[in-house]
Amino acid sequence: MIKPIVMHHLDISLVTLFAEGRMSNFARYDYGSTENVKRYGMSSAPPYMLTNIPPLDMMLITGMRDALADAIDVTRLIVELHGGVKVYTDPLFGHLDFIFADSANTRVYGEILSFLQT
Prior knowledge:
2 strands, two-stranded parallel ribbon
């Protein structure tokens, strides 16, 4: 699991994501209506059109303890990507554990390498 010391190194956008909580759609960053109009030409952040991504072989790695991407979000993502998605779910990992956990090399990296070699 993550060592507590790591948390103070988080990027500010990730901290903002934690603070905003769950959104109802998968969209670009929401800067607020005034800035959204400047950046996107609309008052709300536009959604990512995942259904426009052609079917590709891809791997989605998720953890059962992920507070940012729970099972509902992951399932929705898989459905919207419509095909070719290999899913690896680690029952003990949260969002940042895939990068910072001491056991990531033994729990996850083999799955990634195996996928890349096929």
